[in-house]
Write a structure and sequence with these properties.
With 124 residues, the protein is mainly alpha-helical. It has four helices and no strands.
């Protein structure tokens, strides 16, 4: 993974934001992986909601950033693939696992996933 110091100064704000997103996605993945029954699903739902809101806020910040030039965009895309491709695939698999298991009968988790889906934020 390229270090922040390995990208141009112009690319750093974009890469910093990507790294923050990747960290949140990883925290979501760890929490989703801990869900194995209704009790753990009920316990995880509020924290997952907070993490998804944090990710949504970061995505909102990304949308307000100016369009990068071609060179910066290339650097950002390289980092994007390296730091977010696998974690996002894992996140989607985790959501599918929860859905296939009917959210382990957790109303709180089911409601969270429904809200994400209605808001267009569902990763599945």
């Amino acid at each position: 993974m390229p270090l922040l110091s390995e990208v141009s100064p112009e690319a750093r704000p974009y890469v910093e934001l990507l790294l923050k997103c990747a960290a949140v996605v990883e925290r979501i993945n760890v929490l989703q992986d801990s869900i194995r029954d209704r009790v753990s699903a009920d316990a995880a739902a509020p924290r997952l909601g907070s993490l998804y809101r944090e990710l949504q806020d970061l995505m909102g910040k990304a949308r307000t950033m100016p369009e990068p030039d071609a060179e910066v965009k290339q650097q950002v895309e390289q980092v994007l693939h390296q730091v977010l491709e696998q974690p996002m695939a894992r996140l989607i698999q985790g959501v599918m696992y929860l859905a296939l298991n009917q959210c382990f009968e957790s109303d709180a988790l089911r409601e969270l996933l429904d809200r994400l889906d209605q808001a267009g934020l569902s990763p599945s």
